[in-house]
Design brief:
Elements lengths: L4 H25 L5 H21 L4
Helix pairs in contact: 1-2
C-alpha cells in the first residue's frame, strides 16, 4: 500500500520537527554565542512543521 498525501504531510511534519529540535539543541549545547540565531531558526522549522500538520486532510 502506497503513501497517500496525508502520510506524506505527516512524515514531512515529523522530519521538520526533528530538524528544528536538533537545530535548537545544537545552538544551546554547542554554539552558545549563536544560540539566539539557532533558536529563531529552530522555531521557524517548528512553525513550518505545524503548518504541514495543519494541512493534513485539507488538500
Amino acid at each position: 500500500m502506497g503513501m497517500n498525501k496525508n502520510t506524506i504531510f505527516a512524515w514531512a511534519s515529523f522530519a521538520l520537527f526533528i530538524i528544528g529540535a536538533a537545530i535548537i539543541l545544537l545552538g544551546v549545547l554547542k554554539y552558545r554565542e549563536y544560540a539566539i540565531g539557532f533558536s529563531v531558526t529552530g522555531i521557524g522549522f517548528f512553525a513550518i512543521s505545524w503548518a504541514f500538520n495543519a494541512l493534513k486532510g485539507r488538500i
